[in-house]
Design goal:
Helix 4 runs parallel beside helix 5. The chain has a 6-stranded mixed β-sheet, with helices on both faces. Strands 8-10-9-7-11-12 form a 6-stranded mixed β-sheet. It has 2 domains: about 170 residues, Rossmann fold, CATH 3.40.50.720; about 150 residues, Dihydrodipicolinate Reductase, domain 2. With about 325 residues, it is α/β, with parallel strands linked by helices. The structure holds NADP nicotinamide-adenine-dinucleotide phosphate. The site of NADP nicotinamide-adenine-dinucleotide phosphate has 25 residues, from helix 1 and strand 2.
Length: about 325
């Protein structure tokens, strides 16, 4: 299967590394031979009909920070690469933008228009334009999968839609942002202030230089919108979510909660078509009380009851579990 990678940062490069590592295994287990025919970042596009040398692409990215330095690469944009280069599948891994969805939105739409399947880790376009994206994919008769856009390596979307396909999911609650969970976990364990832990998390690279999306609950809200649409069939968008972040949580509030056997967690919940992100009291013994940077989702099912899944919400390699599972699912479907 010929694949194009758009966005060659943490996730794009992680995919290249995992494809190299699993080349033989994918062939043996699934008869899947992946050929990455193009890689695009903001600098341009590297392209080879017979498949790029992924080791070379990784070393170019590592040493120069720009894929345009790959031999023969051009200053070609993502949309141009999708329109002009022959391939079956696009992996879209550019930064998430919750204001416009761009550049990912244009890449995804260009992919569908060109008759290409799309796999993405980019939540922005989905949180803003879920219905449009899904209907464009359907209209063009291509697959659109996005397990990595929620919870990185935590397999919640495919679990709900495929394994639990006989159930109706009536509500979803979860911790969908690792950075805020890391901050709250350390505040709880060490009695430190929000500002202190945030500063340390930034120094250690666990939190972004601009942590607004995480600490204000925006990242969690984007993922909640995707779950509401993809799992519960609710036609919601980002502006439908009631959002409160964790910036006002004090060590005192955490201590008082602890004395009563609770922890404070940033919970995203969809229930009765209502979407909300807010800090909540969670009993210490409850399955949603997961520590550190982990993510967790509890699905309330009409047959299975409660099903909880816990996993790593991010990571260059871990997130490839989700991306690979989507690529393999598409491969199985198209090869018949
Ligand atoms: N990191 C994770 O663990 C993780 C987990 C789950 C989901 N995600 C999501 O996956 C996506 C990628 O994350 P990341 O961590 O890999 O981000 P990243 O390291 O910032 O990489 C983004 C890549 O996209 C490129 N890019 C930016 N604008 C572009 C454009 N207009 N056309 C083509 N390429 C463009 C960047 O190029 P330059 O470097 O040249 O600017 C860079 O190669 C995001 O949407 C993120 O939310 C990430």
């Amino acid at each position: 299967m010929r694949i194009q990678i758009i966005g060659f940062g943490v996730i794009g490069q992680g995919l290249a590394r995992v494809l190299l590592r699993k080349e033989e295994e994918l062939r043996q287990r699934y008869g899947l031979e992946v050929s990455v025919v193009s890689i695009t970042d903001i600098s341009g596009t590297a392209h080879a009909e017979e498949g790029l040398d992924l080791r070379k692409a990784l070393s170019v990215a590592r040493e120069t920070g720009a894929i345009v330095n790959y031999p023969g690469a051009k200053e070609m944009s993502g949309v141009e690469a999708i329109e002009e280069i022959e391939a079956e599948l696009v992996v879209e891994a550019t930064p998430s933008n919750i204001k416009t969805g761009e550049p990912g939105l244009s890449h995804m739409l260009a992919g569908f228009k060109a008759g290409k399947h799309v796999v993405t880790s980019n939540k922005g376009p989905l949180a803003l334009k879920y219905r449009q994206l899904v209907s464009e994919a359907e209209r063009n008769n291509v697959e659109f999968r996005f397990e990595a856009s929620v919870g990185g390596a935590m397999p919640v979307i495919n679990l709900a839609r495929e394994t639990l396909s006989g159930d109706r999911i009536t509500a979803i609650e979860g911790i969908l942002n690792g950075t805020t969970n890391y901050i709250l976990s350390r505040m709880t364990r060490e009695g430190l202030s929000f500002e202190h832990v945030l500063r340390e998390a930034q120094e250690l690279g666990y939190a972004e230089t601009d942590p607004t999306y995480d600490i204000e609950g925006i990242d969690t809200a984007s993922k909640l919108v995707i779950l509401a649409n993809a799992i519960m069939g609710i036609d919601a968008t980002f502006s439908d979510v009631k959002i409160r972040g964790i910036t006002r949580i004090t060590p005192e509030a955490i201590r008082l909660a602890k004395e009563r056997g609770y922890v404070i967690k940033l919970i995203g919940e969809v229930k009765n078509s209502h979407l909300e992100v807010s800090p909540r009291l969670v009993p210490e013994t409850h399955p949603l009380n997961v520590d550190g940077a982990l993510n967790v989702a509890m699905l309330h099912c009409d047959v299975a009851g409660e099903v909880t899944v816990v996993g790593k919400g991010a990571g260059a390699i871990e997130t490839q579990s989700a991306i690979l599972s989507d690529i393999i699912a598409i491969w199985k479907k198209v090869k018949g």
